[in-house]
């Protein structure tokens, strides 16, 4: 045996112990280094040699310094990092949204109920300027609250883009780091040793990257790792591809990787969650808030537009919305009502305009049929101008402007016309005769020309119909018939009442008379005009309508004289009342014994007559519009005429500036007197009225549901985050239980190595002593 | 056995302490704010239920406010009506006094002055305002509903300028109450309208039953001109007074006698001359020139009628039996049957059942003043008659007073109901959003204990290390 051999084994032992101590001290030093995996010396006994037929050990040899890791666990930890990252973003965002809806003094719901509160307070004194101002201010607080929440919900989208931009830069640099580490690791491990610390750093870098976006790793035997993100190869060996952020046409954030221009489908991690939330959370809640705004504005303004301001009817009114030149021909208002580019839809329906004579207080309603698919804004203006004492035009900004003549005013109130027969068509003072039925009239049978004579107090005039007077003689309209008669008449006139034609002599009083007689090919029978003599009278019948219409649908009552005679005198004289469908709703006894008192017609409508003669022979009749909704077409809301709000989205809605400038314009009433609370009561009812568009909920309920959903979602995000964080902590604990440094353990190792070192040193001194002994022998 | 390295132990301890800390902080915030729910996610269901409760509470508070205002309006109205009622009682006293005891004209004038004063008081009470708003004008509350107008004929009219609408205010959930009484129904109610009675000798009579006047009116009928058939010679209107009206038949008896409407044949002297008409003492002024042709014929003496003291006239030409005379001061219309109208003069007209407080007072005052020039006996008779009308008007005021009282009482009941609703809502709200102090404090104590124990245990465990025992 050679001493040298013993010395060699000791030397190896010493060096192994030194390495062991170094490894332990490396572990202790990195006890707090994130991602560090504890390292372990791998030892084996060194190659034995044969000595005298025996295998003799030659000591220890260091096989490797290995980090202690579970690769699968590392991947799962990285994965969990991605899940936690996504959960955290969702939690943060929803908490932000939740903050917007959290109901304090500034909450939308609170402000909405304050608006209704202000309207309720106004009931006590509708004419009070301060209370009116209070309503307008509450309205502004409500809209500014909506604007704020709307803007912030919209801004969440912008934030996503900016945040993703920053995160993508981190992804880019992380990917570069990993690619660089790949190169290093491959180079170092080419000689077979393990690049432990570099691998730790790479694992940590991958883990950090996973927090941003879901990463799939592919390990190669060379030690290099490829990373796949969103179906694209982000890191391939030593090369990292570029990541870019952009916005598409719809404003959505898009991330592309490498030269592929199609957006990568990023999922998981902070970025994945942000991209998902950009499409879901903010926009979804904004859409619901917009729906609320829309319903609120629509419901509110359907009431407001048909109300009357405290200071009475309008002299002029300008629309809040301007028509958009959607057909691009440079002319505003030549588009159909459905194509004006307005926030609210104008429907098929009708509009009642009430024109009031300011001096006498007499008001009359005019009905305009609205067909948004056939009428242009210009045509609507023309129709409105067709109403006596009104002019309407489309101004240079596409806004409809309506103006009343001096001494007149207009509004859209539903109140019944107190004097429904200003022309005196029912027992008026002038001699008159009307067609039995309504136009169009079939004149074809008689051939043309057709004539009849009108004798007004001895002056005989011949009325001649030519075929050219009518577009279609088989369907001659009341207007055409009236025009044809008017052209030939100087001592009387033809009036259109509904679709009837009424002939009225120009004189009035007892001596006045008018005689109709058949001429050649007389059209009288076809028109249903009675031949005969009709007398005037000194005092026309004064018809008055009383009460308020309580029906739910718009209605026109027709009052028709039954029999000829004097009201209050002739026995059994009656007036029949028909509704629009031709059903008789009432028969009124106005003969002897009638004393001018109010008679009930139907649905809250009452009528009274004064003295005078009425005639069934002359077809005496008049109509009364009983209006439940003066604007079934939503035209006023659509054009922004006399509205409380303007705008249909949470971000844009505002109180009509006309009202802000003059709270007197607030339409508190339905009739126009200062103490009128009619509209205020309707607003109150609106608050609790379930709406189909809001899923059968009322306004408050809808906001409540919105807030509950935000709460639920935020609560869910919070508990998800908690669960996933716990899971992450558990996995990390598991990883640490394998890779973590335990100081006690290292301490023990240190002691063990120290002892091994001491023992090996002792061996060296033993060999030395043995060598000394031998040398002494030879001396 | 699982290996728990010191790093893992540190991390776990930190996580546990942090969790305990946040739990504790949350409980502390709940105690400090008194609110169990800070954010909707703390309890989404409760958060959704809180909202309508708050809205309800706000609405209830507003209704209570409205009810309080309504009550003060009603009370003010009732106060005014009460004073009006007192004034009416005084007027009745005055009337009875004047009717039952013989009084001199001076005494009557003193009483008339008092009635005049009461009338002014009545109008100002009917125009009672609250904060610049008139109580009795229906929905027209910005202008005085009752306006006094004194016509040139010495008649006083009190005109209503409001409407008949009620001013509805929401004073409870689904409860709307009218806080006003429209002045027309309260003071002017026309339902009890009876016959229109004419007292005078002109022959004018009540026409169609559509009269709209109230109280009393004076119809004055004057001669308006003579209509002479074309082709009549020798007949011209005279310059004297004509009292006869209507169609007058004349018979000329040659050489110089004329009889009109069956009256005595009178000798024609030439020039303007008065002729008797019929046998009732009416006259006509004619300027006749002999001879008169044709010998028999018909003249027509037209009339002008006025009920506003001559402000406006309505021509009566006898072509129509029914004539409508309008009062330009208050717009009321009188329907007169003129078929038996035979002479000029004045008709005192009473619209039975229409006396409102104002007209009653005006009538009493005018009778006391002696307008119309009736004798003492007639004055007393008329005063006795008017007492019924005063009582009727008074009754209407008392009915109004009752209505207001009933509403005020209704508000009392409503108020306690609102209070109950409010309490129940507040209770629900408190249950939903307020911190349960006992429970929360107990939880906080427990949490605190757990936190302290954890801190102590970790401190001990973390302190000990193998290093401490190796020398």
Q: Give start-end ranges of low-pLDDT stretches of chain A.
A: none
Q: What structural category do the secondary elements of chain B indicate? A: alpha+beta
| C-alpha termini separation of chain A | 22 Å
Radius of gyration of chain A: 47 Å
Question: Briefly, what CATH class of the largest domain in chain B?
Answer: Mainly Alpha
User: Shape of chain B from CA axes?
Assistant: rod-shaped
Query: Approximately how much helix is present in the residues of chain B?
Result: 40-55%
Number of helices of chain B: 7
Largest interface: A-B, 78 and 69 residues
**What characteristic shape of chain A results from the CA principal axes?**
rod-shaped
Number of separate structural domains of chain B: 2
**What is the number of E strands of chain A?**
34
Q: How would you name the oligomeric state of the polypeptide chains in this document?
A: heterodimer
| Beta-strand residue percentage of chain B | 15-25%
Mean pLDDT of chain B: 86
| Assigned CATH architecture of the largest domain in chain B | Up-down Bundle
In DSSP terms (H or I, runs of 4 or more residues), the helix count of chain A works out at 15
Q: What's the SSE pattern of chain B?
A: HHHEEEEEEHEEEEEEEEEEEEEEHHH
Largest sheet, strands/sense/barrel of chain B = 8 strands, antiparallel
Biggest sheet layout of chain A: 4 strands, antiparallel
Structure report:
The complex is a heterodimer of chains A (779) and B (471). Helices cover 39% and strands 21% of the residues of chain A. By secondary structure, chain A is of the alpha+beta class. Among the domains of chain A are: 3-68 and 740-777; 318-413 and 632-641, no CATH class; 432-535, Immunoglobulin-like (Sandwich), CATH 2.60.40; 544-626, no CATH class. In chain A, a hairpin with a 2-residue loop joins strand 7 (232-236) and strand 8. Chain A starts with a helix and ends with a helix. By secondary structure, chain B is α+β, with helices and mostly antiparallel strands. Chain B has 2 domains: 53-192 and 370-419, Up-down Bundle (f41 fragment of flagellin, N-terminal domain); 197-352, no CATH class. Chain B has 7 helices and 20 strands. In chain B, the strands form 6 sheets. In chain B, strands 7, 9, 11, 12, 13, 16, 17 and 20 form an 8-stranded antiparallel β-sheet that branches. Chain B has a 3-stranded antiparallel β-sheet with strand order 8-19-18, with no helix packed on it. Chain B has a 3-stranded antiparallel β-sheet with strand order 10-15-14, with no helix packed on it. In chain B, a hairpin with a 3-residue loop joins strand 11 (246-253) and strand 12 (257-260). The radius of gyration of chain B is 44 Å and the shape is rod-shaped. The chains are: A alpha+beta (779), B alpha+beta (471). At the A-B interface, helix 2, helix 3, helix 13, helix 14 and helix 15 of A face helix 1, helix 2, strand 5 and strand 18 of B.
